[in-house]
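Per reviewer request, we include the raw input and output of the structure prediction for the construct analysed in the revised manuscript.
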Amino acid sequence: MPETTLRRWQLPAYGRAHLEQVRAPLPAPGPGQILVRVGAVALNSRALPMTEDGMGMPLALPFTPGSDMAGTVEAVGDGVRRFVPGERVINTFWNGWIDHHWPAHAVPAGGPGPGMLASHVLIDAEAAVAAPASLSLAEASTLPCAGLTAWFALAELGALRAGQTVLIHGTGGVALFGLQIARLHGAQAIVVTGSENKRERTLALGASHVLLRDSDWPAEVRRLTNGRGADHVLELSSGPNLDRSLQAARQGGRVSIIGMLGGETLSASFYAMVLGRMTVQGIGVGHRRALEDLVRAIDINTIRPVIAAQYGFDALPAALDHLERGPFGKIVITL
């Protein structure tokens, strides 16, 4: 018999303790929409504050979290030409941002837009991209936020090229994608981590050097680049760490602000930024066309996302606990 209900996680009130799993009627796609059977949902660090307080945004409760999914199209609405039932897709983080300039009406998935932690999701066909043929659904689910953020910072906006140096903070999802994208473009990657036991795994992925966060890593980056400094910095810590990243960047270098593990406030020297002629740019994931570019790059070059662990749909609370501990790579929920 055809399914008539879906399962989803939702928050009737803010706070992870309020997460509940419920059943709801299975919707039919309207004009321009597709119904997707979800195969996997990748968790981002954004999911933690979103479940606690909505990150200060007024969310319509009950609210379903989760920004990134991969699945199979089950049904399409009137006027849909991009996909047919049976095709594998991933969602875009921004519904409405297709290319180039960001439109004011674009809404992010998983807050305040609808979340992906459900057995089925209804999304606009324009907010979906064909999944890479070379990846499983679990692997493909890591692309909409983490993969695209690194790609957008380095390849789309940064014009990364061979022979350059990329300085990367951490070993989470965005960081490891940044490492893989740097190597894909023939650049060397220097990774700063707070954990000695992650060194060998990071080197095995292609990092040229792995430095510890409690060392004088800005000086070491300069030494390793013969005094030049890093061409690109993926700044995933923010806070006072930005000032040290500026010290490690070359004259006219580029610093992409991505994470806020060091807090919501940035701290940096005026002289380091101005005399260093730095480009400092915030990265809010990216648009659909860049995600399509990333998918092609992955299929052509057989890049495999780093997944730290996979959890079943019922184990979402344990998966969020793992995410909070700081995994090496991505945490994925599978259905």
